[in-house]
Amino acid sequence: MFHTFGPILLQLVLAVGFAVGIVALTAVIGPRKINPVKNDAYECGVDYISDARGMFHIRFYLVAVLFILFDVEAIFIIPWATSLHSFKSVGLSVFIYLEMVVFMAVLIAGYIYVLKKGALKWE
CATH for 2-117? Predict the structure, then answer.
């Protein structure tokens, strides 16, 4: 049992030990200069001016949802492309290919609808 899982266990112990050791070492020998500027919130070099829980425009959420939708649909294309060859040996390659054509047609129709509605325009 140790023969098979020993290297994995050794690597895990070394990785965790290295991470804990580095954090402990910086806590022990690191400089401790506390001032208000260092303790202030930092966001891309821009000073904050108000509460972070501000209102966002609905287009931001719409673009985010559309990105996730098209991303998930693109993920479905990869297994289809890799398994198309195995369907060819069974004689279903034409059916599977036409099924993907219908899927892509619906995807493109949705994309054209989104473009016509102007959901991706930032003004």
Answer: 1.20.58.1610
| DSSP category for residue 30 | S
Domain residue limits, the chain: 2-117
**DSSP conformational letter for 43:** B
- E-assigned strand segments in the chain: none
pLDDT tens digits for range 76-121: 888 888 888 888 888 888 888 898 899 889 888 988 988 898 877 7
Contacts of 29 (CB under 8 A, 6+ apart): none
Report the distance separating Cα 119 and Cα 66, nearest Å.
Answer: 9
Q: Which of these, 101, 66, 65, lies nearest to 80 by C-alpha position?
A: 101
